Amino acid sequence: MQSARNFFYNSPLFSPKSKLGVHIVQLVLIVSAVVLTFVRMTMNVPRTRANTMALSMGAKSLIVIAYELLTEHVARFRKWKSLKAYAILNCLEVVFWAAVMFMVFRANMNSCTGISCALSWVVVILAAILHMLAFQTAVVAICEFRYFRRNGVTRDEEKEAESEMERV
């Protein structure tokens, strides 16, 4: 158990510094999935719950990422920063993108024709990638929350303090 914890805390893949880059990639993929879903819905195909869910989960994810980025990087919004909220929201993201992937996949298996079918499969692939990225951000958020609860500082703050001590 200790080796798994050390892996998550010490791996560069789960470093808090990787959050910003992952969030930017997520934003690009979410906007792509929403645009493709919207384009597919404007075609002459029946509207399904899968399409509606892809749109709503995309909008929700954009709001969640905006909350995280604003409270992390804008001083004016820092008072609403909550590592516990980050952990909860990112864990929900994992489940929601898995649901989008499953529902669109299932809708494609039932009926899928033409260009709208290709767009749907691209949305399935984007949802799968977003699911994996959400897992990564969830692990980072959980590690950050648990570390803060145990030590009273985030991993970034502790590393900054250590580097300042080395300079002195």
From TrEMBL:
The chain crosses the membrane at residues 20-39, 85-106, 118-142. The keyword Transmembrane applies. Keywords: Membrane, Transmembrane, Transmembrane helix. This is Cytochrome P450. The lineage of its organism: Eukaryota, Fungi, Dikarya, Ascomycota, Pezizomycotina.
